[in-house]
Amino acid sequence: MIISRLYFKNPIICYQLLIMKKIILFWLGVLFTTEIQAQLHIPALSPMAVSQQQIGLGKATVTYGRPSLRGRKLLGTDNIPHGKVWRMGANEVTTLELSEDMNLEGKPLAKGKYALVAIPDANEWTIVINSVSNQWGVYQYKESKDVMRFKVKAEKINPSIETLSLVFEDINPSSASLVFRWENTQFKVGISQDTDAIVMAEIKEKTSKENPNVSVLMEAAEYYLMMNRDLEQALIWSEKVLGKVKSPFRFNLKAQIAQKLGKCDLATEAAKGAIEYAERSGDVAAKTLAQDIIKGCKK
């Protein structure tokens, strides 16, 4: 104990120990850096991919590993057997992330990130949405964590698809199909959003205010025109909008609504206003639309 205290009180020894400590730390750093630099950067056999699609007012994003056949037969064999849960890709489990509430094959699914796995079979697959999205494969998969399950029809395709793909097709403003293709199998999962209900709720909320914004009234009138819904109300909104600021677009909006209602005198009057303002601003497209409305009313 006495020797130890004397040892550490000696300034020369303390200085030597400090130098030795720095040397040891330096060489440990060199060894660690060399080990990192010695690691090889090898491309993945099943590279990751992302498919993303806007659906309605939100986005659906699928992240998955893309395995290739490389001369193998996989689906329906011991590698990927029928009747057992499969990650629907490679490496980490395939995930589906929704930025808004949507419907999968007509079933409601809340926004969030999920594991997207499947149970293959010859003629139909069971698609499983599981709440644990950070799994490696399906080794930790638990059925108790499933959010929903549904079946989809599997189709045989030729020629064989070498590399697994999950892509969005059948694109519409409020729906799309997530299409799985690999080997000789294809199936689709319909994803949709009831945007009309969302938009109508927003229109009701914003147009019922004491002094609704002119842009809100204009967009509401446009939406009603597009959906062919309560055109009398749409006409009232278009007149309020035109009363604030006159423009070729606003005249044409009123003209289009009036034309759909069969009120051709009103439609023609508004279209002539659109032509007048379009000529002032040089808006050729608005002028052409207004002329078409007048021609349509003369038929």
Give the topology, please:
Blueprint: H1 2-9, H2 11-38, E1 48-55, E2 58-65, E3 95-98, E4 102-104, E5 107-109, E6 112-119, E7 124-130, E8 146-153, E9 155-172, E10 175-192, H3 195-207, H4 214-227, H5 231-244, H6 248-260, H7 264-281, H8 284-298
Antiparallel strand pairs: 1-2, 2-3, 3-6, 4-5, 4-10, 6-7, 7-8, 9-10
Model description:
The protein is an alpha+beta fold. The chain has 3 domains: 2-38; 48-192, no CATH class; 195-298, Tetratricopeptide repeat domain (Serine Threonine Protein Phosphatase 5, Tetratricopeptide repeat, Alpha Horseshoe). 41% of the residues lie in helices and 28% in strands. It contains 8 helices and 10 strands. It has helices at 2-9, 11-38, 195-207, 214-227, 231-244, 248-260, 264-281, 284-298, and strands at residues 48-55, 58-65, 95-98, 102-104, 107-109, 112-119, 124-130, 146-153, 155-172, 175-192. The strands form 2 sheets. Strands 1-2-3-6-7-8 form a 6-stranded antiparallel β-sheet, with no helix packed on it. β9 (155-172) and β10 (175-192) form a beta hairpin. α4 packs parallel to α6 (248-260). It is extended. The N and C termini lie far apart (113 Å).
